[in-house]
Amino acid sequence: MRLRQIALMAREIAPVRAQLEAVFGLKVAYVDPGVGVFGLENIVMPVGGEFLEVLEPMREGTSGGRYLERRGGDAGYMVILQDADAEAHRKRLEAEGVRVIARSREGGRYRFTHFHPADCAGVLLSIDSVDGDKHWQDPMSAWPPAHDHWRDYPSDVSLGITSVSIQAKDPGAAAVRWSTLLGIPVTERADGPEIVLSPGVIRFVPAIDADGTGVVALDIRVRDVAAVLKAAEVAGVPVVGGAVQIGGVAITPVA
Q: How far apart are CA 53 and CA 132, in angstroms?
């Protein structure tokens, strides 16, 4: 199982896009009209072979809009993982009582299941697969949510998303829950529990706000950490403890 895409929910896409472009050199590869069914607009930006998606509610009463209200503004929204057979995970988790809130239609090669945040320690989780792709573990393998030409939009600055951090009032319990969901053991480290994917790491950290749920941080591997931090300074984007504050998450550039 690999970490493939992280989604951010924003009041407005444009300023988040501008900051990601200015600091991390990301480019928009695709705008997915399919998210309109959820009352959203989006952009998808490749980060090496992983992706950042930024979503914006386009009407009242959407789950995305309610999420912004609950989190108090822009915030990390969703973790998307890829494995060989998303259908098998769906059947397993549904049998265990995990609620499904969205699923792919029959007939397409792209399979996804969105699992209810309340059953996933407060985080929207999707486990996806691409039918017939024997090379799905390759770093630059096909990824339908970014359409067909995403490889034409590489960043000259950023090379990949290496980790995501999820906040919880009880990080240990959240890690155990995700371990059960994913079928992958928890690794205990001095700075807290984590789940190691291939590639990618999911970290569980103490709550940093009153809500106490959601994605709060990412690590992005870059060519030059100092250059990224300088670009943030020039663009007027806040940096706290070596992490660039964009879209309600702390994005740390790592070598």
A: 25
What is the CA angle 170-173-174, rounded to 5?
85
Task: Name which of 143, 180, 132 is nearest 45 in CA terms.
Answer: 143
Reported as a single tens digit per residue, the pLDDT across 162-175 is 999 999 999 999 99
d(CA 179, CA 215): 17
**DSSP type of residue 247:** T
Cis (ω within 30 of 0) for the bond into 199? Answer: yes
Report the Cα 218 to chain-centroid distance in Å. Answer: 9
Locate the domains of the chain by residue range. Answer: 2-254
46 preceded by a cis bond (ω within 30 of 0)? no
Read off the tokens for 29. 């590869």
Distance CA 131, CA 228 (A): 37
What are the DSSP E strand ranges found in the chain? 2-9, 40-47, 50-57, 75-82, 100-103, 110-115, 124-130, 158-168, 187-189, 192-196, 201-206, 215-222, 239-240, 243-246, 249-254
Tens digits of residue pLDDT in 32-80: 998 998 899 999 999 999 999 999 999 888 889 999 999 999 999 999 9
Tokens describing residue 75:
């915030």
Which tokens hold the place of 49? 């072979």
| Cα–Cα dist 56/14, whole Å | 9
Position of tokens 């509610």?
A: 57
> In this structure, which CATH number among 1.10.150.110, 1.10.10.10, 3.10.180.10, 3.40.50.720 belongs to the domain 2-254?
3.10.180.10
